[in-house]
């Protein structure tokens, strides 16, 4: 009993320290500025290579390409910074309706460039990098302040490994070519996902399947992906045929056809229903409904006396 009583202050101090750490981490994740953010930005800039290319099309569908084929499209430090910039660009694209995320040269993404990983392998910098990428990918999927209501698709060709597998979970849908593979290889590196991939994976496939994929570092082929709900469609084109992007665009168009404000409104209410409490989601739905009721698309449909088919 005496030992337990003596240990109470230590336990309390440890718990308080952890609480402060989590509060700081939470503040970092939802901030785009501040000393911690600028510190990790400066360190990531030291590791150049590759690019994140963005092409916005008149159709309202943008294509974002992870482009570092010499390293299987692994994220260098500068690419992590560029991803944040591209997300910011998309957040202000008022004509946008959809987004396709792909890798260059027939493979999706192999996670982090090991050169950058080794250089920031101390726990403090590793945590900052983790939170930086968590925040960026959260903005991509969850829409920070609903500024990016685009319906997004990960087009997986070749391999999506580690952080690349996590990137696929930051999209609304995942399409795979017949010979593609998604694999959460973090266990082999003595790690767990740190870019938000585990939390998103559980929401997509459930906790049991997530445990199997993470604990077993299982390779997910198109068949297994469809079976567990990770993959939404298997494309008919294979690696090297060059038709997969066209196929992905045609698949996405079925959900983005129509006026941009309406498509964006659809994405907003779905995200709020997924991410917010019921009360908050209902309020958001009312607010979003008010933005399209009596709007151009609504009035045009009424004038045409559109019938449901």
What labels would you give this structure?
309 residues; six-stranded mixed beta sheet; 13 helices; 53% helix; globular; disordered N terminus
Radius of gyration: 21 Å
The share of residues in extended strands comes to: 5-15%
Q: Order of strands across the widest beta sheet?
A: 1-2-3-4-6-9
Number of helices in the DSSP assignment: 13
Shape: globular
**Regions with little confidence, pLDDT below 50 for 5+ residues:** 1-30
- What portion of residues is helical? 40-55%
The helix-and-strand class reads alpha/beta
Count of DSSP E strands?
9
User: pLDDT average, as an integer?
Assistant: 87
Descriptive overview:
The protein has helices at residues 2-29, 35-44, 77-91, 114-119, 123-142, 163-169, 197-205, 207-215, 222-228, 244-256, 260-275, 278-292, 296-303, and strands at residues 51-56, 61-67, 98-103, 151-156, 159-161, 173-177, 181-183, 219-220, 233-235. Mean pLDDT is 87; it is low at 1-30. α2 (35-44) packs across α5. It is an alpha/beta fold and 309 residues long. The longest helix has 28 residues, at 2-29. The protein is 53% helix and 13% strand. The strands form two sheets. A six-stranded mixed β-sheet has the order 1-2-3-4-6-9, sandwiched between helices. The chain has a three-stranded mixed β-sheet with strand order 5-7-8.
């Amino acid at each position: 009993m005496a030992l337990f009583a003596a240990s109470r202050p230590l336990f309390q101090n440890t718990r308080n320290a952890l609480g402060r750490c989590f509060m700081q981490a939470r503040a970092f994740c939802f901030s785009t500025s501040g000393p911690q953010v600028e510190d990790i930005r400066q360190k990531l800039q030291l590791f150049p290579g590759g690019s994140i290319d963005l092409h916005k099309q008149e159709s309202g569908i943008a294509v974002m390409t992870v482009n570092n084929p010499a390293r299987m499209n692994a994220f260098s430090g500068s690419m992590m910074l560029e991803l944040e910039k591209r997300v910011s660009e998309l957040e202000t694209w008022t004509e946008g309706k959809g987004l396709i995320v792909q890798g260059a040269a027939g493979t999706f993404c192999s996670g982090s460039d090991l050169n950058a990983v080794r250089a920031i392998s101390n726990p403090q910098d590793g945590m900052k990098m983790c939170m930086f990428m968590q925040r960026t990918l959260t903005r991509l999927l969850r829409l920070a302040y609903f500024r990016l209501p685009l319906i997004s698709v990960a087009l997986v060709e070749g391999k999506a490994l580690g952080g690349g597998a996590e990137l696929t979970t930051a999209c609304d849908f995942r399409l795979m070519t017949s010979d593609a593979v998604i694999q959460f290889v973090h266990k082999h590196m003595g790690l767990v996902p740190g870019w938000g991939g585990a939390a998103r994976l559980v929401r997509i496939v459930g906790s049991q399947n997530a445990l199997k994929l993470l604990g077993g570092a299982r390779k997910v082929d198109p068949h297994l992906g469809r079976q567990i709900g990770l993959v939404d469609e298997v494309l008919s084109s294979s690696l090297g045929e060059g038709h997969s992007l066209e196929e992905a665009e045609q698949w996405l168009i079925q959900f983005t056809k129509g006026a941009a404000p309406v498509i964006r409104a659809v994405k907003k209410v779905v995200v709020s229903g997924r991410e917010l409490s019921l009360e908050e989601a209902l309020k958001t739905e009312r607010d979003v409904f008010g933005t399209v009721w009596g709007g151009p698309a609504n009035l045009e449909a009424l004038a045409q006396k559109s019938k449901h088919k």
